[in-house]
């Protein structure tokens, strides 16, 4: 049973989420303050995913996320936020969060996002050198990409972008985060217009209908997300 830490101070939401997530097969530990969460984290190192509220009585989920990332903790983090303002979302992603969901939200959507992040985390830690998403397979050792068993050719930058997206499957990556990770063979940073070109080329090679992509999604105002 996968173990989740819920950091939330709304008692009614805690009760509803605990009951529903347990029915979906998750083991839930609850903290109502940042201090309680830190105590639980000091006692337990086997959490599979964190659900953090943003505004809490003794601080906020962003600062706790930053401390966890600075300490090298890679466990996926989803922010539960009452605000979908761009500045709040970007801060959550930039401080190391993997995804966010705006209150009020549907339980089915939250469970889907949790499972997507757990799959990505499992894939990242599998150590077999293979990235998979449906019919798409990337052999990292050989630098080769296969779609439905057929080899697909990519330029170096396209390949790096694809691997970055797959390793972060389900997570919204801002354009700034992607640009920080990608550069060409000469060490020159990719600019914003070039990134748009690479995204279009990936869709042309991987999507059944590039104009209506099912996997490489644009998250308007933020960046991109690879969806299973």
Can you give me a brief rundown of this structure?
By secondary structure, the protein is an alpha/beta fold. It has helices spanning 11-23, 34-43, 61-70, 86-94, 107-124, 156-167, 175-181, 192-206, and strands at residues 2-7, 26-31, 49-53, 55-56, 59-60, 77-81, 99-102, 130-133, 136-139, 144-147, 150-152, 172-174, 216-219, 223-226.
Characterization of this structure:
The protein folds into two domains: about 120 residues, Rossmann fold, CATH 3.40.50; about 100 residues, Arc Repressor Mutant, subunit A (Orthogonal Bundle), CATH 1.10.10. With about 230 residues, the chain is an alpha/beta fold. It has eight helices and 14 strands. The longest helix has 18 residues. The two termini are about 20 Å apart. About 0% of the residues have low confidence.
Secondary-structure map:
Blueprint: E1 2-7, H1 11-23, E2 26-31, H2 34-43, E3 49-53, E4 55-56, E5 59-60, H3 61-70, E6 77-81, H4 86-94, E7 99-102, H5 107-124, E8 130-133, E9 136-139, E10 144-147, E11 150-152, H6 156-167, E12 172-174, H7 175-181, H8 192-206, E13 216-219, E14 223-226
Parallel strand pairs: 1-2, 1-3, 3-6, 6-7
Antiparallel strand pairs: 4-5, 8-9, 9-10, 10-11, 12-14, 13-14
Task: From the structure above, extract its key features.
2 domains, five-stranded parallel β-sheet, Arc Repressor Mutant, subunit A, 14 strands, 8 helices, 41% helix, 228 residues, alpha/beta, 25% strand, Rossmann fold, four-stranded antiparallel β-sheet
CATH architecture of the largest domain: 3-Layer(aba) Sandwich
Structural shape: globular
β-strand percent reads 15-25%
Head-to-tail CA distance between termini: 22 Å
Query: How confident is the prediction overall: mean pLDDT?
Result: 85
**Radius of gyration of CA atoms, rounded to a whole number:** 18 Å
Helix content: 40-55%
- In the CATH hierarchy, what is the superfamily of the largest domain? Response regulator
User: From the helix content, strand content and strand pairing, which structural class follows?
Assistant: alpha/beta
Q: How many domain units?
A: 2
